Amino acid sequence: MTTEVKVPALPESVSDGVVVVWHKQPGDAVERDEALVDIETDKVVLEVPAPVDGVLEKILSAEGTQVMAAQVIGVIRTNGATVMPATSVGANQEPGQDVRPEHDQPLGPAVRKLLAEHRLQPGQIPATGKGGRLTKGDVLAYLAQPSSPVVAEFSDDAAVLLKPPVTEAPRPVAPTPGLPEIHEDRPQKRVPMSRLRARVAERLLQASLGTAMLTTFNEVDMLPVKQLRGRHGKSFAETHGVRLGYMSFFVRAAAEALKRHPDINASIDGEDIVYHGFCDIGVAISSERGLVVPILRNAEYMSLAEIETDILEFAEKGKSGKLSMDEITGGTFTITNGGVFGSMLSTPILNPPQSAILGMHSIKDRPVVIDGEIVIRPIMYLALTYDHRIVDGKSAVTFLRTIIELLEDPASMLLDL
Length: 417
Known about the structure:
Shape: elongated
CATH superfamily of the largest domain: Chloramphenicol acetyltransferase-like domain
Distance between the termini: 68 Å
Low-confidence stretches: 81-103, 151-164
């Protein structure tokens, strides 16, 4: 008896996905709900679990294949089948079938595949792995030997495929006058763009071409927030189990400023302007797959501890690619922090259909004049990019000033004054 492995229902507005990685190979035992395959859409990576216990019999969609919702991508045998040790490999054995050495050492997926493809028995090849285990390197080294029976078995044309590829010598680079001649290779690598990266590129281009973006800059004295974190940071972590960072203060300040300036918390829908009566604030997070923006729903009602806890959870999910569609969909305003990477000043790009995005930057000690005296203060530059079709310059500047005033007097923000 077999069970089909199907692509799950894809999120709304997502038509297809790409198989990123199979965690199991044909012949591997699988358990129900165990991670079986990852499918990348243009927004999230979907982790597809095994629907039943059994043995993965076939993979119908290899890594890199484009797939649709409900498409069958694999087959699991469920009638009590187990992976049995193989004493020999038949000529009709399909690539990917399980192969075990005579001493019953487990084999990795790559080793099994090579053995099946070249019709080899594990006992033919000297094993150098730990505990006498056969490794992929052992098989490749065996295949590379001139006396290998694999080469003798195939025709001359087929044997050529086992030889290392011949690469054309790099063309000499003409030296620039006044500079030394370049002799070393100039390598380059071409890789397909991930679905997420392609989607990010599409949205950024859409924002550049479809909005009237303008940016206003200002600076904020971070000393009051730093002093507050210094006084209460340790007890905050002990009480709530999460570190008190800067982002929670900015989220709270942004939520309060959005309530006071509703035109910033708005978006264009066709020929209408939609004013949102809630503050769903997106926090940009960098992951290995690209930039993702999970949403803090109703941020105006969240405490600093709740904000920090959610951001930490989002960051962990972003690194493992487990953010759900609901967690990254929507949002009425976005905050991005280039300061964590050392950025001094930048111009953030809008996240359509939102009308504004706030950019944070590095905190640097700078001389400033306060009450007629020059003092050293920790200063951060802020950048607010806004859609001039909705937001006037005056509204953008006063909105940014509101955020600065709240951060430079955090007690008034926390006490709702």
